Amino acid sequence: MKKVVKFGGSSLADAKQFKKVGDIIRSDADRCFVVPSAPGKRHAKDTKVTDMLIEAYQLASEKKEKELHKQILAIKGRYDEIIHGLKLDFSLDQDFVEIEKQLNEDPYLDFAASRGEHLNGKIMANYLGYEFVDPYDVIYFNEEGNLNAYKTEKLMAKRLEECPKAVIPGFYGQAKDGRVKTFSRGGSDVTGSIVAGASGADVYENWTDVSGFLIADPRIIKEPKGINTITYRELRELSYMGASVLHEDAIFPVRSKGIPINIKNTNRPEDEGTWIVESTARKPQYLITGIAGKKGFCAVDITKALMNSEIGFGRKVLQAFEDHGIAFEHMPSGIDTMTIVVHEDEFLDKEQGVVSEIHRLTHPDSIEIEPDLALIAIVGRGMKSAYGVSGRIFSALAHARVNVRMIDQGSSELNIIVGVDSSDFEKAIKAIYDIFVTTQL
Ligand code: ASP
């Protein structure tokens, strides 16, 4: 059995956390490839090392040499604390001299940001006695700045064949021009997934500071239950609606190989966490797998008598949005009405332009814009074979005196999306959680 383990920043914030990680890795000989993030926050008011490095880049680009030197010392302090806390006979002094030199001579953001993982990887390799594999040599981006998946997989697989146990820092690789390039923030998740895919791992363990996904947002529901198993498709629906534990792009390299992801908690390693899988016979514990939602949408309602028989009507309406560079989120429709749901912040500046173009192209009877819409997705693979799911949702909302402004059920029967007033958002989520999880009526 081969396991790839990725540890997030809070799991590696200081020597104490590093020791927990070391214990986790040593407790299972299958954990052979380790992908670390940069040290994260040690407490709520702390700064992540990646953010300190970005700040260092800013100072360097403003040619503030003295301030840069101070910032470099502060970052070095974070690493020295870890090295001394682990009692390692190891130093990053020379690395910091070179980083400062590079930032003074030719500062660039991706190089600066990537050093957090690079240095943490070096410490981790020394601490574990594993080989250090620099992703600069094995992860490649193409001309457009996207991952060159084919080249990366080939090189990574070959390199990992040579070393049975290795540390591969997260978050960066090499751009087409030979410079260091990072993924977007949180991108160590993607590196972990690439390593898992290329090494043909049996499982990709992603260690963080929570025991996996929760059925609902803990800021809204007090101590919500966890999700034991979720499919990739369910996860996609929930993360689209704001549930975030894993970087969106981390799914693709493992999904195509059928490698499951197990989200685990470094501070509670005995918890099973959440399994993310392609498909499963495991029944969800509740009728729904999760609830997630977002505020900040608005609905554009277009009405025209006999719209249903007018060929090309829908296309023309969407054309108006496309011409203004606005993506639409949902499109529920009636016989003579059609609603386009869009992100408020993308739409507001352009609304009058869009409205006049819809008028010009389709000559509707009326167009109404409804702001302050919140969308809530109720997601679950179990819905398909159950009756009464939507009945329960709407009766729960009615009992909570929440007015439903929009309903959309995808043809996959994997989710039901309801639109409510932003002011009813929290109340609606509580009502839905209660009916499916707390009371299970
Ligand atoms: N250290 C990077 C960040 O803060 C990448 C990561 O942690 O995955 O975004």
Give the SSE map:
Layout: E1 3-7, H1 15-26, E2 31-36, H2 49-61, H3 65-85, H4 93-105, H5 109-128, E3 131-132, H6 149-162, E4 166-167, E5 172-174, E6 180-182, H7 188-199, E7 203-208, E8 229-231, H8 232-240, H9 252-255, E9 261-265, E10 274-277, E11 290-303, H10 313-323, E12 328-330, E13 337-343, H11 344-347, H12 351-362, E14 366-379, H13 389-399, E15 404-409, E16 415-421, H14 425-438
Parallel strand pairs: 1-2, 1-7, 2-4, 3-4, 7-9, 8-10
Antiparallel strand pairs: 5-6, 9-10, 11-13, 11-14, 12-13, 14-16, 15-16
Helix pairs in contact: 2-3, 2-5, 3-4, 6-7, 10-12, 13-14
Bound molecules: aspartic acid (ASP).
Describe what this molecule looks like in 3D.
With 441 residues, the chain is of the alpha/beta class. It is 39% helix and 20% strand. It is built from 14 helices and 16 strands. The strands form 3 sheets. It has an 8-stranded mixed sheet with strand order 3-4-2-1-7-9-10-8, with helices on both faces. A 6-stranded antiparallel sheet has the order 12-13-11-14-16-15. A hairpin with a 5-residue loop joins β15 and β16. The longest helix is centred in the first third of the chain and has 21 residues, at 65-85. It starts with a strand and ends with a helix. Bound molecules: aspartic acid. Aspartic acid binds at residues 9, 37-38, 48, 50, 116, 170-171, 185-188.
